[in-house]
Design a protein that fits this description.
binds adenosine monophosphate, Rossmann fold, alpha/beta, about 35% helix, 9 strands, Pantoate--beta-alanine Ligase, Chain: A,domain 2
Amino acid sequence: MKTVSRIKTVQMLLQSARKTGTIGFVPTMGAFHDGHLSLIQRARRECIYVAVSLFVNPLQFCDPEDYLTYPKDLPSDQRKAASAGVDLLWVPSVDEIYPPGHCTFIEVGEIGNRWEGAARPGHFKGVATVVAKLFKIVQPHRVYLGRKDYQQVRVIQQMVRDLHFNIALRVLPTVREKDGLAMSSRNVRFADDDRKAAPILYKALCHAKRLVSEGEDDCRRIVRQAQSLIRSESRATIDYITMCNPVTLEPIERLTGKAVLLLAVKIGNVRLIDNVELILPRGKKRRIGGKEGHQIIDVEGNED
Ligand code: AMP
C-alpha cells in the first residue's frame, strides 16, 4: 500500500491503475473502525484497484471544537488499511484541497437543508464540495458509502446525478457494535455511563421496525413510540426523530411503501445519528392500538 499526500502523485498512480481495470474509492475522515473496513473490503472484492482518502474536511464542520478534536490516528489507519488490502491511501493537506483564494462551492438544495442540514448549517455544502473534488481527482468507477449517513448518501446520489459524474455508488449496511450502537469515529468520546445508554437508539429503531412489520402505518404513532422509548433514557436528548420519504427526505404522515426513520440524539456530550429503512409488508392492515412491547428485531433485516 502506498500512502501519498500530493494530488499530482494520486493522479499519476491512478492513471496507470485505470488501464488495468475498475477503480474502487472509499472517501473517509479516518479513525477507521469496522464500518469503514466493511466498505474497503467490499471495494477490495469488486475492484482491481482500491483507493481510500483520509481527509478531515474543515468545510463540513460547524463546530470548530468538533473539528479540532476529531479523532486522528494515522499509523493505526495505515495498518488497518494495508491489512484490508488498500492499494492507495490518500491523505491530502487542507491547503492542497482548499488552496488560498478557493471560492467555488457546491449548493445542494432542499435535500441538504433539512434534518442534519438544519442542525449543522452548511454541513452538506461542505460535504458535496469536498466529495466533488475527491471524485474529480480520483475519477473512480465505483464509490462505496455507508447507509449510516443516510442523508449524506442522498446528497451525494443527487450530486452525482446532477453533475453527470460517471460513477456507480454502492451503499452498504450500517456496521454495529454487539449492543446495536452504530460504529462511529466519534464513539471514542463517550464517558462510560453514556456509552452504556447509547444502545437506546438501536432499541428505538428496532421497535419502529417491529411496529411496521405488524402493519402500523401511522408515522406519528411510530415516531411517538420511538420518542417515548428514547426519553426513558435520562441521558438522552432528542434532536429530531422523523419518518421521511427515502428519496426526498420530506416528512410523511402515512406509510404506503418504503420510508426511512431518521434520528439524531445527544447522549451526554456525544451527538449520534442513526436510521432504519421501513417497508410496510404487503397485505398488512393498518394496526389499531395494539401492544407496545419493546421486542428487539434486527434493523438491518431489509438491507442488501
Ligand atoms: P466518515 O469517516 O465518518 O466520514 O465515514 C466514511 C464512510 O464510512 C462514509 O460513507 C460513512 O457513511 C461510512 N460509515 C461510517 N460509519 C459506518 C458504519 N457504522 N457502518 C457502515 N459505514 C459507515
